[in-house]
Amino acid sequence: MSDKQWRLVYYKLEEQNALFAYGEYYEFFERYDVSSRTWRPSEISYSRFLHDFNGTVVDENAASAMTGGNLPDKKYEEYRCMLNRCAESGKDEE
Q1: Which residue intervals of 30-72 are DSSP H helices?
Q2: Residuewise pLDDT in 10s, the chain (94 residues)
Q3: How far apart (Å, rounded) are the C-alpha atoms in residues 7 and 93?
Q4: Phi/psi at 26 (nearest 5 deg)?
Q5: Where are the beta strands (DSSP E) in the chain?
């Protein structure tokens, strides 16, 4: 698998001062919560985000600056690992 498939893409919504991270291969879509300084699952789907909002792609450096260096890399890695185990075992894990 190429590095591009594992890469996160960051989107900024200027009007809401919001930051989102999307990992295409596993459909990981999270929003940065400024008040708790954590990444949380987005309340809207990525598809709806693309069609209904005017997000601007920002690079990892800009996303890092907006979050004080708190990027969801580890959370995305854990998410990928969890899905891989489920796929390998053929059943859902709790």
Answers
A1: 46-52, 60-67
A2: 445 557 899 999 988 889 999 998 888 999 999 999 999 999 999 999 999 999 999 999 999 999 999 999 999 999 988 888 765 555 544 4
A3: 25
A4: -110, 10
A5: 8-13, 18-23, 28-33, 38-41, 56-58
Q: How many residues does the chain have?
A: 94
Inter-residue contact 8 to 28 (CB < 8 Å)? yes
CB-CB contact of 5 with 24 (8 Å): yes
| Residues 10/63, Cβ–Cβ less than 8 Å | yes
The tokens describing 7, both together, are 């890469």
Rounded Cα gap, residues 68 and 48, in angstroms: 27
CB 23 within 8 A of CB 7: yes
Which pTM does this prediction carry? 0.82
